[in-house]
Design a protein that fits this description.
globular, 4-hydroxybenzoyl-CoA_TE, alpha+beta, YbgC/YbaW, Thiol Ester Dehydrase, Chain A, 6-stranded antiparallel beta sheet, fatty acyl-CoA hydrolase activity, hydrolase, Tol-Pal_acyl-CoA_thioesterase
């Protein structure tokens, strides 16, 4: 993956993201990663609320996350998104959370599937992404 296909989103650690010691609570890294993927899609012109009108969405199927160093209250961070594999009904990403010096604090591999959300009481099922979405994602990866 070339550096030009790496998306980066800046965030700041808020008090609500931390434990009593001022260290980011591990589960909140997942929120940081999710927000960066959402902003990446938005930067490509893909708004998730448009998908929801079509009863389509992305659901995370698999997460592998490694916490390497702690992030702390009020710290400025960058969260990256890189597409590693694009399939008809899923996307695999690598993501990192870095401090301002470029030190990797957290790294993760995420697999997200495109699903049809169905009506209330019906099963969610994996479906192929719309062709126009696949084309946008191919150009970005």
């Amino acid at each position: 993956m070339s550096e030009m296909n790496r998306f980066s989103w800046p965030i700041r650690v808020y008090y609500e993201d931390t434990d009593a010691g001022g260290i980011v609570y591990y589960a909140n890294y997942l929120k940081f990663l999710e927000r960066a993927r959402t902003e990446w899609l938005r930067s490509l012109g893909i708004e998730q609320d448009t998908w929801l009108e079509l009863k389509l969405g992305f659901v995370v199927r698999k997460v592998e996350m490694e916490l390497l160093r702690p992030a702390k209250f009020n710290q400025e961070l960058d969260v990256t998104v890189v597409v590693e594999r694009l399939k008809r009904a899923s996307v695999e990403f690598t993501q990192q959370v870095l401090d301002q010096s470029g030190t990797v604090l957290c790294q993760a591999r995420i697999k997200a599937a495109c699903v049809h959300l169905g009506e209330a009481g019906t099963a969610v099922r994996a479906v192929p992404m719309p062709t126009e979405i696949i084309e946008v994602l191919k150009r970005a990866s």
